[in-house]
Specification:
- Strands 2, 3, 4, 5, 6, 7, 9, 10, 11, 12, 13 and 14 form a twelve-stranded antiparallel β-sheet that branches.
- Strand 11 and strand 12 form a beta hairpin.
- With 308 residues, the protein is mainly beta.
- Helices cover 9% and strands 51% of the residues.
- The chain has one domain: Roll (Lipovitellin-phosvitin complex, beta-sheet shell regions).
- It contains four helices and 14 strands.
Length: 308
């Protein structure tokens, strides 16, 4: 054996393989090109609507609750109190006219409207009926404005009571205008979101909605939404207010109806600095707030909806 040949042969073979086939030698045909990956299917989008037609009847219940711990401070010292306040409205709507799934004329019967307030340390409480309780009204949207009239033979409605009325519950206006997929978010209209804060006129600094999940199948499927907002404002007596609310809402996709909303958060009140500088009694208060909305079919006898 010639020295070095045993190692040189494998090296020469490797070089020949790297150089490829010689001219005239048969070549294997190239294999098929690699298949391009299939694009992921587009996520399904859902229309979140509260759709009503002429002849439909719905029952709406709204409850706003807040429990605030107060500290009043003045030249004579401090006074503390804790107050529970609950406002409740229940009405039935019979849709007279609608366009594009939205009512434009309604006959509304207020089954209940009132407020309950209790000073928790002393257990003293008061209850007052609202001006709309027992009223039957005709609501009609004309050129973007809402006209409110008593039903035939009904007494004239006070102007301040008419100003409180909305054609639809505030939460309906928070549904997205375009279809959304699970995980999509949208901005809430500030003016409508502000009406969720109980007992105050505020400016909303941030408000958003999100489609968190769709559960069930077919006509029984339900969309679950997440809603959150932050707001601030000034109320009577130079008192600054801040509020946060967050929670969930449910839309029945088969029926295309908003069914309920449950929101909770915190409300804070503080006298403006100028009140203290002027030597006036100041107030500081803080506590939880809740807003609950339930919308159902108006069937059967007209009756109350349980306790507070």
């Amino acid at each position: 054996m010639i020295a070095g040949v045993g190692r040189a042969v494998p090296l020469a073979l490797a070089a020949a393989l790297a150089a490829g086939p010689r001219p005239g030698e048969a070549q294997e045909p190239p294999g098929p090109p690699a298949a391009a990956p299939e694009p992921a299917p587009a996520p399904r989008k859902y229309e979140l609507r509260h759709s009503l037609a002429a002849g439909d009847e719905v029952r709406v219940e709204t409850i706003r609750r807040k429990t605030l711990s107060y500290v009043f401070a003045g030249p004579g010292g401090e006074v503390r109190d804790e107050v529970l306040h609950v406002a409740r409205e229940v009405w039935r709507d019979r849709i007279l006219e609608a366009a594009g799934g939205r009512p434009t004329a309604i006959e509304r019967t207020y089954e209940d409207q009132g407020s309950f307030e209790q000073h928790l340390p002393t257990k003293q409480w008061t209850r007052a009926d609202g001006k709309l309780k027992g009223r039957v009204l005709r609501l009609r949207e004309r050129s973007g404005a809402l006209a409110v009239e008593p039903a035939a033979g009904g007494p004239t409605l006070p102007e301040d009571a008419a100003a409180e009325i909305r054609l639809e519950p505030e939460v309906v206006a928070l549904l997205p205008a375009a279809p959304v997929a699970v995980g999509d978010s949208w901005k809430l209209p500030p003016a409508e979101a502000a009406r969720l804060v109980p007992g105050a006129s505020v400016h909303v600094s941030a408000a958003s909605g999100r489609l968190a999940a769709v559960e069930g199948a077919g006509d029984s499927s339900v969309a679950r939404l997440e809603i959150s907002l932050s707001a601030a404002g000034r109320i009577e007596g130079a008192v600054d207010l801040t509020a946060t609310l967050s929670g969930t809402a449910e839309v029945a996709l088969g029926a295309r109806r908003l069914r309920r909303a449950d929101l909770s958060g915190r409300l804070t009140l503080r006298s403006a600095p100028e009140a203290k500088a002027a030597g006036r009694t100041t107030v500081a208060a803080e506590g939880p707030i809740e807003v609950r909305l339930v919308i159902g079919e108006a069937r059967g006898p007209r009756e109350g909806s349980g306790g507070r």
